[in-house]
Amino acid sequence: MKKWSRKKTQLSLFLAFFSFFMFSSFLNDHRQSTTRKLPDSKHSSVQPSFPTYFTINTSNPGTKKPVLGASDWSKACASARSYKGKSNSVMENQWQRESWSDGCDVFSGRWIYDNISYPLYDEGTCPYMSDQLACGKHGRPDKEYQKWRWQPHDCNLKRWNATETLEKLRGKRLMFVGDSLNRGQWISMVCLIQSVVLADKKSMSPNAALTIFRAEEYNASVEFYWAPLVVESNSDDPVNHRFDDRIIQPDSILKHASQWEKADILVFNSYLWWRSGSKIKLLWNRDDVICEEANGLDAMKLALETWADWVASSVDPLRQKVFFVTMSPTHLWSQEWNRGSEGNCFHEKTLIESEGYWGSGSDLDTMRMVESILDRLGPKVLVINITRLSEYRKDGHPSIYRKFWETLTPQQLANPVSYADCIHWCLPGVPDIWNELLFNFL
């Protein structure tokens, strides 16, 4: 992996302004910015390679607690004290990779330009496309970002087939659970399959915490459930979740689980919402006035441990498949792939060609913490490792070519770098490849 100096690059005033804007605006649109920090050199040479399967030896997913309403959250945590159960530093080990079923690591490979087979669908013909991800509709002039295929080094992926996917989903519920990045993968999946479903045999429910696309002739559904912090939190409303203080109930997951527990195939993600740089308040009991306060890594560990307890005690591997999607990279700092520059993904039209490239948007301590939890879950969870393959795709973000819900100032409009979205992904694009990987595991 490419190494970087410990010394931080001096940031210009416009980059400081950019950091503030990215954090505040992305919260309003189901998005979170990552901590702006170049990777420490002690972490830059080793990246964890997630095994395919993962195991936990617990049996209690937690006791059911009363559900908090908006007024309850607003009264909680009037003050806070430091969380005492901080995580230990993660040892820097080279994780042992378990191979895919045929001995091939499908997550290690390269991008191949393929303007014959890709894109897999047309942006304008998918009626369920999101304005946040429809880059062509919002003025992006180039289309090359849509025409790349992922090629593993030692094997071939089975090519995408929408009809075959629907046959695999016949009589089943496929549910994506997580934040706006997982929502983007859900929209990608819907756009990938909807064209082979008759117009009068498909439908989409109104946008809500749980949104459902139905393919009636297959008795199948592809669903998205908004749970950006996995456990219950004051950010669980899919629209109104912008708060100065982020509060979670670290051991409360049953309200969410009641929505997803009957699904046949579950696809979880969790990362960016823990990376705001601000402390997260831990509400252990609904009547607590004084809460604990933890950094994002410690809070995420508590939440994922609660989730893992639920998986260990509640998932029946004979009936359900559970996937965990690793962190989606950001490309906020062009100095990481072009030293001396001070931009981001704005105007980027080419891929990063340095194999093993690893940007600061993918935190290694977080990856190792996640792996330490997933490593105890055995065959109950399959991992879709999107991180490394997506790191190369600095060209794939919406940048300025998307709908922004907040009003942009003249100063921002004069400086596109200051508001470019380098977190989410254009569709058609990179998330389609994540779903191709998922298709190969179904």
TrEMBL record:
<feature type="domain" description="Trichome birefringence-like C-terminal">
    <location>
        <begin position="158"/>
        <end position="440"/>
    </location>
</feature>
<protein>
    <submittedName>
        <fullName>Protein trichome birefringence-like 35 isoform X1</fullName>
    </submittedName>
</protein>
<dbReference type="Pfam" id="PF14416">
    <property type="entry name" value="PMR5N"/>
</dbReference>
<dbReference type="Pfam" id="PF13839">
    <property type="entry name" value="PC-Esterase"/>
</dbReference>
<keyword id="KW-0333">Golgi apparatus</keyword>
<dbReference type="GO" id="GO:1990538">
    <property type="term" value="F:xylan O-acetyltransferase activity"/>
</dbReference>
<keyword id="KW-1133">Transmembrane helix</keyword>
<dbReference type="InterPro" id="IPR026057">
    <property type="entry name" value="TBL_C"/>
</dbReference>
<keyword id="KW-0812">Transmembrane</keyword>
<dbReference type="InterPro" id="IPR025846">
    <property type="entry name" value="TBL_N"/>
</dbReference>
<keyword id="KW-0735">Signal-anchor</keyword>
<dbReference type="InterPro" id="IPR029962">
    <property type="entry name" value="TBL"/>
</dbReference>
<comment type="similarity">
    <text>Belongs to the PC-esterase family. TBL subfamily.</text>
</comment>
<dbReference type="GO" id="GO:0000139">
    <property type="term" value="C:Golgi membrane"/>
</dbReference>
<keyword id="KW-0472">Membrane</keyword>
<feature type="domain" description="Trichome birefringence-like N-terminal">
    <location>
        <begin position="103"/>
        <end position="156"/>
    </location>
</feature>
